Amino acid sequence: MIRLENVKRIYTRRGQTVTALQCEDLRISAGEYVAVVGPSGSGKSTLLSLLGGMLSPTSGRIWLDDTSVYEQSVISRSAIRRERMGFVFQTFNLIPYLTALENVQVPLALNNVSPVNQVGLATAMLQRFGLGDRLNHKPSEISVGQQQRVALARTLVNDPQIILADEPTGNLDPTSREVVLKAFDTCYDEGRTIITVTHDLTAAARAKRRLVLNDGQISEESFSRAKVA
Amino acid sequence: MNLRSLVWKELRERPWSVLSSSIAILLGVAALVAIRHVTVHSEQEVSRQLSSLGANILILPKDASLQNYYAADRNGQTLPEEHVTEVLMAGLAGVEKVTPKLSMPASLGGLEVTLTGILPQSEFTAQQAWQTAALFTPKKHDGCKKASHEPTAADMTPESLNTTRSIESLEKNQIVLGADVADRCAFSEGDTVELLGGTFTVLGTLTRTGTVDDSRVFAHLHTVQELAKSGEVVSAIEVIGCCEDAAGDLVPELSKLLPGARVVTVSQVVQTQVGVNRLMSGTSWFVLGILILVGGASLASAIAANVRERRREIGTLMAIGATPSFVQRLFLMKALVLGLVAGTIGCVIGLLTAVLIGPQWAGVSIVPLPGLAVMAVSAATLLAVLAAYWPARQAAKLDPCLCFQEV
Ligand SMILES: Nc1ncnc2c1ncn2[C@@H]1O[C@H](COP(=O)(O)OP(=O)(O)OP(=O)(O)O)[C@@H](O)[C@H]1O
Ligand SMILES: [Mg+2]
């Protein structure tokens, strides 16, 4: 379970302070599928960074089960991400000089999986996303939709409990978008926790719970109101 | 996939930027390796010359230039052959042998060679002009520490031209070939050779010395005088003293005897070389300083630029779970590979340069020194890693949240 306890994140730039996120109590149980919606600049990426152990809150605590994430060392937080989390990005963030297969191998390599097992697991994951014939293509040599599928394979290859996605369908055509949303549905069925930030209301509608961010303030939105929107 | 393959694949993606970021290290190592090789061999050559020829004295035309002992007779000016008789008649203590030489350019089988006329020692007793000098017997100078040089079996072979710079006997139609000439023209002992209209028999070939002697053809002095139509002149007279001390004492006496000539000892000749060596040695440390400054700075800035360019990639790697130390090692390893590759290529270029230009430039043949090569490559690698240390640390401190930024 994830819990935010009196979390506040303030940015200071050239003397100006911006409260990017403020949250008294937010709980996300294991296995939930949560969409976070909100206008640009409302603090969605800030929330994901805080949840991912990459951005210390100015005050408050973030719990992951019984662990207070920011009372851990940087190295332990890297290990938490490596072993328990998977990220999906709007711009995919594939490593340009690596092939599809090699990109998917990276998280395995960071977890010290042997090279032989890396190839086996990564190939299987890419095949699951219909990319069995694109293993040795670089990101620049495949379509945008295929790039996001490679990125999804990279996210899931480590079998993460928690998936954090920032606008995963923002750059995609409807067909590719459906592939991503299907993958999230499957992850939900497999019992993973999914937290996805999105502008896309149809994508948000697929989630089981929605949070609305406005100027750094989080509020719950009921299922019915989302449907109306 | 591991840290190493990640580094390697990134490097392979842009080979030109790789080369440009480490070109300063490459060139620095090349220059350093070339200069050190030439210096080390040149120093060895100087001490070899001093120990084997330290007792030798050269009598040269007054304004002959002197860079290299072996090439001293190739400057085109001449002395009267008379001087040989004058030296012998003076009966100076410490003189063991006198060998006059006349050199001229010639071509043999399409190869540019130096034809050097030399008077075999056996002639000294036979020559009419030296009847009185026939009474000449080598006199040791007072307190000579060395046993007088008795002709040994080795002195009877042509190889003695390399070891003592004299030959016991040589017929007027015989020649001895330097190592380069023998190799390039594929002549060997007993062959008949056409040279400047004359026919000669090859008496023997010499082993390689790495000096201009390798491209010489030795013939009888009087034959060369006829071919050159020069009259009774010589380019140089070598006086072989009984020991190094004798050589020092003989210089003023010979200068008094032959006021029109220039008299120098081997140690005086090699002084020039010693000076050049000292300069080169100084230069090589200067090059090392420049290598460290320029090579280190250019690599450090290249790595820093690479870190800036790959900010989002680094953020993504950290989001996926790479530790800061992994990111730091990613760039240190890259620098290590760059240093190793640039150092190795530079070392090979430096070695080739030294081996190719050493003989012409410094008159020494160069054998690769593995210790020096290993040291140069390790130094380049260490330098690269040290230079990358700061930018690599900056990379490790980058914010993983960069992964959410759009390009
Ligand atoms: N590094 C930073 N320094 C200063 N201010 C920041 C920084 N990152 C974000 N902010 C500010 O914090 C607020 C929230 O930013 P955040 O990136 O979380 O918004 P977002 O909801 O993800 O927006 P978008 O939909 O455009 O991605 C914004 O006002 C932004 O300007
Ligand atoms: Mg954002």
Describe how the helices and strands are arranged:
The complex is a heterodimer of chains A (229) and B (407).
Chain A: E1 2-13, E2 16-28, E3 33-37, H1 44-51, E4 59-64, E5 67-68, H2 74-84, E6 85-88, H3 100-110, H4 115-128, H5 144-156, E7 162-166, H6 174-189, E8 193-197, H7 201-206, E9 209-214, E10 217-221, H8 223-228
Parallel strand pairs in A: 3-8, 3-9, 6-7, 7-8
Antiparallel strand pairs in A: 1-2, 1-4, 4-5, 9-10
Chain B: H1 3-13, H2 15-53, E1 56-61, E2 79-80, H3 82-90, E3 95-108, E4 111-118, H4 123-126, H5 160-163, E5 174-177, H6 179-185, E6 192-195, E7 198-205, E8 216-220, H7 221-228, E9 233-234, E10 236-241, H8 244-257, E11 261-265, H9 266-309, H10 311-320, H11 324-362, H12 370-396
Parallel strand pairs in B: 4-8, 5-7
Antiparallel strand pairs in B: 1-10, 1-11, 2-9, 3-4, 3-10, 5-8, 6-7
Bound molecules: adenosine-5'-triphosphate and magnesium ion (MG).
Residues 44-45, 166 of chain A line the site of magnesium ion (MG).
Q: State the total count of DSSP E strands of chain A.
A: 10
Low-confidence stretches of chain A: none
Largest interface: A-B, 35 and 28 residues
**Bound ligands:** adenosine-5'-triphosphate, magnesium ion
Major sheet description of chain B: 9 strands, mixed
Strand content of chain B: 15-25%
Strand order in the largest sheet of chain B: 6-7-5-8-4-3-10-1-11
Largest beta sheet: strand ordering of chain A: 6-7-8-3-9-10
Gross morphology of chain B is elongated
Structural class of chain A: alpha/beta
Q: Please state the average pLDDT score of chain A.
A: 94
Total number of strands of chain B: 11
Strand content of chain A: 25-35%
